[in-house]
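User: Teach me something about this protein's shape.
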Amino acid sequence: MSSPKYRRILLKLSGEALMGNDAFGINRETVMNIVAQIKEVVTAGVQVAVVVGGGNIFRGMAGAANGMERATADYMGMLATVMNALALKEAFENVGVHARVQSALAMQQVAETYTRPKAIQYLEEGKVVIFAAGTGNPFFTTDTAAALRGAEMNCDIMLKATNVDGVYTADPKKDASAVRYQSLSFDEAISKQLKVMDATAFALCREQKLNIQVFGIFKDGALKRVVMGEDEGSLVSC
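Assistant: First, the predicted structure itself:
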C-alpha cells in the first residue's frame, strides 16, 4: 500500500455536516460515519486536527440578523462548536481513537484551553485534536479558525469537507453543465469569484501558503483518497 501524501492535516467540518438528514442537532449515525473515515487515515499514520463549526445548533450571523447583538450571537455560536467537539471526541473514543478537545474559550470542566505546544504534542502522539470555540473572538468564522489553526499546527494542507465533491464552475445543484475543477490557483479562485471559503480565511491560507482541498465528506472513502493524493475534490494551491 502506498504512503499518504500528507503527514499532518487540518480537517474543517461544518456543524451542518453533523446533522445528517435531520433539521438540526447531531445525528449519531452521521457522526460515526465521519469518525470512521477519520480513523481510517489516522490508522494510515496521518496526524489529524479538526475544526468544527456550530451551525447545526446555532449560527451567529443568523442570530445577529434576528436582532441579537453580533458579538453575543457569535459567542453563542462558539459554545455550539464546543458541544459538537465533545460529541466528536466521544465518538472517537468509542471506536478506539484517542482524541482531545481544545477550546479557544476557557472552560476547564469540559475541555482544555487551547495551547499550541500541547496540541502539537497530542498530534505527534497520534491523537486527534479537535479545536472548538473558533478563534475565541467574535466576528470571525470557523473557516478563519481552521486557517489559523492549520497554519499554527504546521499542517501540510487544509481539507474543507462539504456537501459537494469539490469546487465547480457553477452551482452543480442548479446548473447541470457545471464542471468540477481538479485544481486551481488562489488567484484563479479570486478572479472567477469562486466562494471556496470566507475572504478572511482564504486570504490567510494564501498568505501562509496553506493549500486547500475541497471534497465531499459523504462520499465513501473520499477522505482517504484525498490524503493518499488521488483525484478527489478540488485543490486550491499557490
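Now, about its shape. The longest helix spans residues 70-94. The CA atoms of residues 157 and 211 lie 5 Å apart. If you'd like, I can walk through any region in more detail.
User: That's plenty for now, thanks!
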